[in-house]
Amino acid sequence: MLKKLFYFLLILSGTQLFISCGGCSDKKSKSGDALTLNDSLISDAPLKLSEDIMGEVIQNISSPVEMANLIKSSGAEFSQRILNNPDNVSRYETSYKRALNLGVFSADLGYINIYDKNNVVVSYLLAVKNLADGIRVGQFFDFNALRRMASNSTNLDSLMEMSVTSFNKMDSYLRDQNRSNVSTLIVTGTWIEGLYIASSVVKETKSKELAIRIAEQKNIIDILEIILSNYISEPNFATLVEDIRELKAAYAPIRITTELAEPKRIEKDGTLIVIQDEISTVHYTEEQLATIMDLISKIRNKIVE
């Protein structure tokens, strides 16, 4: 499970998002043409968060990994209809839209991998390639090798390992170039698409476990809104922040309570270790969840349009 692309993109993007916010002034492309700030996605708005907060956010933001398994275990059939259409890539003409939808298609790849749908994975890899090229990070992906591996289900682990390596290189490059808002958009697109897919499945299967995972994302929305607000001077970011704030308001009535569970005792190297667990309970109504899922759908559709 930990080798699923969905998991690693969230962790890599999330790590970049919370540890390397910072920036520089406007830059020029290698060809010498000036890039507008809107399109270069370069920011000079630093953000510092404590290590504890970063760890908590990264842990929570990886929760779509559990969603991925719950989606399949809910009994829902694979549906390509709920994914973004690779033909839409040609419509994404700005770096803002390309970065957001790079996250979207990466989440779609995670969903495809859950069901081992090798017959459609190539078109989504090509979508990722085109979007990565569009924000000048495509050089980190060997797409010919990825496509060959995708055609054979026995190569799934190798495919995931190569994909992770590619995203890791991209992450380092973005950090070096002070383009942390690119990572912000990628992780936002991935998070929204993951919730959209989960919401689509909940509407079909009424899965209680999956519904709880969606409700639990209240732990993420506050931090995501803070991060995105660093770039609110950008018109596109301002619209996205407004959408995220609307979603945050929908999450507000949900309560998450925590209580201590029975300690676990395990033996390691001849030593007895006591681990104190916690049990979280999410309190929400079906109406509240329905409002959240409708807003997720609204935001997601604006991203992919």
Secondary-structure element series: HHHHHHHHHHHHEEEEH
Radius of gyration computed on alpha carbons: 20 Å
Morphology:
globular
On the 0 to 100 scale, the average pLDDT is 75
Oligomer: single chain
Helix content: 55-70%
The total number of structural domains is 1
What characterizes the major β-sheet? 2 strands, antiparallel
The structural class is mainly alpha
Protein traits:
single chain; 305 residues; mainly alpha; two-stranded antiparallel sheet; 13 helices; 62% helix; globular; disordered N terminus
Question: What does this molecule look like?
Answer:
It is built from 13 helices and four strands. The protein has one domain (5-255, 285-304). The strands form two sheets. Strands 1-4 form a two-stranded antiparallel sheet. Helix 1 runs antiparallel to helix 3, helix 1 (5-19) packs antiparallel against helix 5 and helix 5 (95-114) packs across helix 9 (180-205). It has helices spanning 5-19, 37-40, 51-61, 64-73, 95-114, 118-134, 143-150, 156-176, 180-205, 208-216, 218-229, 235-251, 286-304; strands at residues 255-260, 264-268, 271-275, 278-283. The longest helix has 26 residues, at 180-205. A hairpin with a 2-residue loop joins strand 2 (264-268) and strand 3. Helix content is 62%, strand content 7%. With 305 residues, the chain is mostly helical.
